[in-house]
Amino acid sequence: MFDVVIIGAGVVGCSIARELSKYDLSICVCEKSSDVASGSSKANSGIVHAGFDAKPGTLKAKLNVKGNKMFDRLAAELDIPFRRNGSLVLCFDDSDTSHLHELMEKGIENGVPNLSILSRDEVLSLEPKMNEDVVAALYAPTGGIVCPYEMTIAMAENACSNGVQFLFNQKVINIIKEESTFLIQLENEQIESKIVINAAGVYADEINNMVSAEKIEIKARRGEYCLFDKAAGALVNMTIFQLPTKLGKGVLVSPTVDGNLLIGPNAVDSEDKEEKGTTKEGIDEIIKKAELTMKNIPVRQTITSFCGLRPRCTRDDFIIGEAKDVPGFINAAGIESPGLTSAPAIAEMIEEMVVQILAPGRKLDFNPIRKGIPKFREMNHKERMALIAKDSTYGKVLCRCETITLGEVLSAIRRPLGAKDLDGVKRRTRAGMGRCQSGFCSGKIVKILAKELGLSEADITKFGGNSKILLGENKEISEK
Amino acid sequence: MEQYDIVIIGGGPAGLAAAIGAKEEGIDNIIILERENCLGGILGQCIHNGFGLHTFKEELTGPEYADRYIQKVIDLKIPYKLNTMVLNMDSDKNITAVNELDGSLEIKAKAVILAMGCRERPRGAINIPGSRCAGIYTAGVAQKYVNIDGYMPGKEVVILGSGDIGLIMARRMTLEGAKVRAVVELMPYSGGLKRNIVQCLDDFGIPLLLSHTITNIYGKDRLEGVMIAKVDENLLPIKESEEYIPCDTLLLSVGLIPENELSGKANVQLSSVTGGPEVNESFQTNVDGIFACGNVLHVHDLVDFVSEESLSAGKSAAKYVKGQMYENRIEIMAESGVRYTVPKYVNLDIIDKNLNIRFRVGNVYRDNYVSIYFDEERVIHLRKRILTPGEMETVKLSNALLKQHPACKRVTVKVEGE
User: What ipTM does the predicted assembly reach?
Assistant: First the structure.
């Protein structure tokens, strides 16, 4: 019997898990995939929004601004990269500048600090690569960038270190409300909990609708992105949005916190909640739109493109709180943008609800500090010498494009909630994220995973399930 | 701080030959820095034969060919460090490297030879739409799994791109029991050697679909199939011609990119055509004392030419250490059909033997001529039955010819109809 079961190990579920791990509670996170950050949390813009976009008074507005303020401390505690690089909303038409002012007013009402309108010349002096047709921009110095999966992993690791249990490859089949508890039927087992928190991303409607008569609907809204080589990472300093016009919402152009350049996303509603393929039309669309922001999008330096799914709620705001007809069942649903920014604030909001229901005591030995994997690539000569002297595996570079060492890969596999597949290693270390897209290191990492996990190389997957890298030994196929 | 006369970055075929060249020219204080756990580079996984026909007049496998050079490096007592990754280099030839034994290494070199090879163009670089499932590999990655590790990446295979590694892998996968459904090539001609098309596809009845591409990739966890389509003259897919091919594996052989991230850090000027450094007849880059050879310079079809070029680069570097200076006196112009030349610059005064000019053409030409002009004078006019982008061309300028034109201001290489 758990006190709290959280469904979904995305950034919202893991933030909640970490927040609740401060209390004397038995907590379990159930995840249908093989790793944390396997849904919307792994493929999004990675933006810590300032908070001028959401409609004043909404949960989105409130939690965005609150969440934004929490990031400096969070990044320090969790040892994750975070940069307040600021953001601009570009306006390309004199007749639209009134909308820019409206956006600023909205931001002020939401409580976003230090907003200002910049002239064309000011924009171009701060961001010389911008399209010179820009007429003005809204500047938000509190905007930032973060790595969404690294943040999720860090939240989860810290929660795990503080006693939260994680179940992977465990899809929730059904939830049955008993008198004072819930029976949660998983694929291979059944668990019981006093409180259920629904953080199931694009599937949050299915989870809610299992127990509540107050049905909700979550659609998957596809968003495609292109990611460019680090050689293009310094083309912009800030996150650059476009002022929405009657032609549409536009796309962003942003550096990533790891130093690449990112453009996207488009927005296409999808019936299929697993459809994460990219399309030629989608990629063409985002490149074309990004060219409004910056004329020379370095298409030749594309290293990958990907598609993420946003959990789009038909109610147009986050759904956070206890289902009216099901005491103890708490939703954190419809967490689309600015969900990443809001996640820490959502966690605090849910913490209050759980405290009210269960009145748990504080855990005396809660440790908010999580130490990340040492980043060899960011060290100086002296630091490298010291690290290699302590552990020589940090002297063996496995991923040449991103300069990731064997030591880092081993740490990714051996730490709490360690990596079990290639994508798990990639998202924890960046091995395979560079310009060769894992060509040179994937074979080596398959071997290391097999050895560390006590498996055959043929058992290693890209991301769990049936995503096997190798289909057997040589000649084996024809013999069968 | 360790000091060397010559540091060779990379212990593949280029680095090995360069080291031998430098040693034979009398320089002993040499080191080869190799990031993998053995010398020989990519040859180790190229277990097919066909190597060495030019160099040794016999047919060797890749590992056998590499071994001849490795043995020579050992016999000549040329030092090397394995598992050593070069992380940085500046134009003053200060090098930072790392390995498990020495930790973080700081090295000062009088001359550097770049021999880092190339990498395969990945899926992302050509933006093939569709699922991001498992089962999609570059041909070289698959080659390593099969030939080194003994594992099959799949059993029902489609190959995109007809570069040589893709063709070789079509045969290899077939021999190991897989079914290769098709090799799909965007261009109306193959990017690989004719001999590989015959020996690796035709002999096994594997269809080569020219002017075709892949328009979508399907599969949730593991690849389930690809959509292919014909392309029009603008290389755009023709929707009506789309055809679904079920397969569990897609291999990509869509180009090789010289791996010059390190060169860029030392301000080495790169060609926008080859992606490799622009060098002169002595294989020196625009940075004094930094030389380049092998696939980091331009992608070769045959290792024999890599060895020949690299031996020469090694000798040039040795002479540089002994005081010889090189300059880019004349530019070699690549015109009408010729995409680039190596070398890009030449100083006729210092050439004491024949000069090889290597180049690739940008299209298929039948019954055309390769011409070389010294200023306005056509000095070479060679009839070629066929010229294709997949095959590197070499024109040899004899020393006697060079000596006849000491005042030449410009050399031009072009394809001519007559």
Answer: 0.94
